[in-house]
Amino acid sequence: MTDKTPLIATLLLSCADIKGLVAQISQFIFQRGGYILYLDEHVEKEENMFFTRVEWDTTEVNLPPNEFWRKQHMPLKQQ
Predict the structure, then answer these.
(1) What's the rounded mean pLDDT across residues 11-32?
(2) Backbone φ/ψ region at 41: left (φ over 0), alpha (ψ -120 to 50), beta
(3) Which are the contacts of 48, defined by CB distance < 8 A and separation ≥ 6?
């Protein structure tokens, strides 16, 4: 019997709120073979700040762990 325990990664992100952030983050994870298990987000409108926590299964992610968060892999586009 094989172990089916997922390899879970957690992203905690805070940045200026821009249109499409959740879509960009979700697309980034999906394109690399990740499967989102949990996503929560919050916006502080007065400060224009975005906060999120995303947990995903990385079992099928097709990037080495030490390269996953390099800037060129996940640029947040400003709209």
Answers:
(1) 91
(2) beta
(3) 16, 17
Amino acid identity, position 46:
E
Q: Are 54 and 38 in contact (CB under 8 A)?
A: yes
Q: In this structure, what token pair is assigned to residue 9? A: 């990664």
- For the chain, the DSSP string reads -------EEEEEEEEE--TTHHHHHHHHHHHTT-EEEEEEEEEETTTTEEEEEEEEE-TT--S-GGGTT-GGGS-----
- The whole model's pTM is what? 0.75
Top pLDDT among 61 and 26 is at: 26
Return the amino acid letter for 37: L
